[in-house]
Amino acid sequence: MERASFQLDDVTNILARTPKVLRQMLEGLPDAWIHCNEGEGTWSPFEVLGHLIHGEKTDWIQRIQIIVGDGDEKTFVPFDRTAHLHVNRHKSLETLLDEFEAVRNKNVRTLKTMVLTEHDLNRTGKHPELGVVTLRELLATWAVHDLSHVQQIVRVMAKHYHDEVGPWKAYLGILQSK
């Protein structure tokens, strides 16, 4: 299998589509589907959506700006992966879907207005756990992060019917995965 090389347009296309994908998957479903999870310490589709919103507000664009900025300090602020668990508890799914769409659209517009050259894509910042990373790696990670969480939501929702599928479970790999 041939892997695609990094293309900024591909990243922005994936990022722009994620809010629509999640709205199509989640909007109008009963709460049991939105709030199901894989057990203690795992996230429901509702919580994953909250996590994505938190990242949009506090992480991706800010780190891009740190990398392309002129300052000497290129260290990223640590990202609180669980901050969303307390913030969104009393919001509706529709509110979260609207919020994600709005903040993501704003961030994609911001990203598109940056004139990022090949030189810029090779510029670096310092991740608090991973060390030195390039802008290209950060942008690729943003897109793959979306895809990973879409996969997570699909997996959690499939497992909602884990017992109901009966003997077909043996043929459904998604029910075997973690």
From TrEMBL:
Signal sequence extent: none
InterPro entries referenced in this protein's UniProt entry, alphabetically: DinB-like, DinB/YfiT-like
Lineage top rank: taxon: Bacteria
A Pfam family of this chain: DinB_2
Ranges where the DinB-like domain occurs: 15-153
Protein name as catalogued: DinB family protein
Source organism: Laceyella sacchari
